[in-house]
Design goal:
By secondary structure, this protein is mainly α. The protein is built from 14 helices and no strands.
C-alpha cells in the first residue's frame, strides 16, 4: 500500500543524493515496512471508531480500538510489502538499494510476511463482526488492485491509493458498529482526497515538478476535509472540542503551506519532492487528531493528544533514518 513515499536519506555511500545505504537484518525489514509511515496508520481506524460513536451512542472500548488499530496496521503492512514484490524488477534496475532488490530480504520471506500481515488484518476484523470483516476484505482487495497495476494509471491510481486510507477509517467505524451515518463517509472521503493529493505529488518524486501549484493540493484537501467534518458533525455547544479541532487544523494547514512554499523553490529536485511527500504523510496525524478532537467523552480528545504528543514526533524522528517510498 505504498504510493505515499517519505523522504529518502541523503548522503549515500555511492554519492547519489537521496539513496540510502545498504541495509541488512532487522534494519532491512524496518525499511521494507517504511516504519515512519506505520505510525500514521492507527489514527485512521481510531478516527472512524470515534466518529461512529458520535452518532451510534456508547464510546468504543479499548479492546475495539486496539483490534481496529492492529487490523489496519496489518493490512497496511501487507500493502507495503506487496508493493515492493510487484515492483521488484523495476527496483532492481532503478532502486537496487531497496531491501528486496538488494537481497537483504528474501523474496519467499517477503511473501510469507505479506500473507501473515494480511492474516492479522483480516483475522482481527473477523473476530469482531461481519461488518468489520467485510470492510477489511474490501480494503485488502483495493490494496491488491492498486499494487497489481492501478498505481500506474495516473489519477485513478491516486484515488485508489487515497481510498485505501479512506477505507481504513471506515474500518474503524465498522469495528465500532457504524450504522451508515454520513459523518464517517464525509471524513473518509476527505481522507481519500488528502492521500490522493500526496500520491499525485509523489508520482514524480524521481523527476521533480515544473509547476508550484501541485504542492498546495495536500493542504487544500486537508482544509476541505476538516471544514466538511465540522459542518456535518454539528457538535453544538461543545465549543472547546471545535476549538481544539480548529487549532489542530490550523497547525496542519500552516505546516502544509510552509512545506509547499519551501519545496516550490526546489521543485525540480527529487530529494526535495521526496521530503515534502514524507512530511505530508506524517501530516495526516494532525488531520486524524483534528477529527478525533470532535469525539464524545474523553476517548477522542485523549487519542488526539496521544497522536500529537507521541506518534507525530516519533514519526518525524524515524523519517530522518528510514524512507517510506
Amino acid at each position: 500500500m505504498n504510493g505515499t513515499p517519505a523522504p529518502l536519506a541523503a548522503g549515500a555511500p555511492d554519492g547519489r543524493p537521496g539513496t540510502p545505504p545498504p541495509a541488512s537484518g532487522v534494519f532491512a525489514w524496518l525499511r521494507l515496512l517504511r516504519v515512519p509511515n506505520l505510525l500514521t496508520v492507527p489514527g485512521d481506524p481510531w478516527a472512524g471508531a470515534v466518529l461512529a460513536a458520535m452518532t451510534r451512542g456508547p464510546e468504543a472500548s479499548a479492546a475495539v480500538l486496539l483490534l481496529a488499530g492492529l487490523s489496519s496496521l496489518g493490512l497496511y503492512a501487507f500493502g507495503l510489502i506487496l508493493n515492493d514484490l510487484c515492483d521488484l524488477a523495476e527496483d532492481r534496475r532503478e532502486r537496487p538499494h531497496r531491501p528486496l532488490a538488494s537481497g537483504a530480504v528474501g523474496v519467499p520471506a517477503a511473501w510469507a510476511a505479506a500473507a501473515g500481515c494480511a492474516a492479522v488484518g483480516l483475522g482481527c476484523a473477523v473476530a469482531v463482526s461481519r461488518a468489520a470483516a467485510v470492510t477489511a476484505a474490501i480494503l485488502a482487495l483495493v490494496i491488491t488492485a492498486y499494487n497489481a497495476g492501478l498505481k500506474r494509471t495516473g489519477w485513478p491510481g491516486w484515488l485508489t491509493m487515497g481510498a485505501c486510507r479512506g477505507l481504513s477509517l471506515a474500518l474503524g467505524a465498522a469495528f465500532a458498529g457504524w450504522n451508515g451515518t454520513p459523518l464517517v463517509v464525509t471524513v473518509a472521503a476527505g481522507t481519500t482526497l488528502y492521500i490522493a493529493a500526496i500520491t499525485c505529488v509523489s508520482s514524480r518524486e524521481t523527476l521533480g515538478w515544473r509547476r508550484n501549484g501541485v504542492f498546495f493540493l495536500p493542504p487544500a484537501a486537508a482544509a476541505l476535509c476538516l471544514l466538511t467534518a465540522w459542518g456535518v458533525a454539528g457538535i453544538g455547544g461543545a465549543t472547546w472540542r471545535l476549538g481544539a479541532s480548529a487549532g489542530l487544523g490550523a497547525w496542519l494547514l500552516w505546516r502544509g503551506w510552509r512545506l509547499a512554499r519551501t519545496v516550490s523553490a526546489r521543485r525540480t529536485e527529487p530529494v526535495a519532492v521526496q521530503r515534502f511527500v514524507g512530511a505530508s504523510i506524517r501530516g495526516i496525524i494532525l488531520l486524524q487528531a483534528g477529527v478525533l478532537a470532535l469525539g464524545p467523552g474523553l476517548t477522542g480528545p485523549g487519542l488526539a493528544a496521544l497522536l500529537v504528543a507521541v506518534a507525530l514526533p516519533a514519526a518525524s524522528r524515524l523519517g530522518r533514518r528510514f524512507y517510506g517510498s
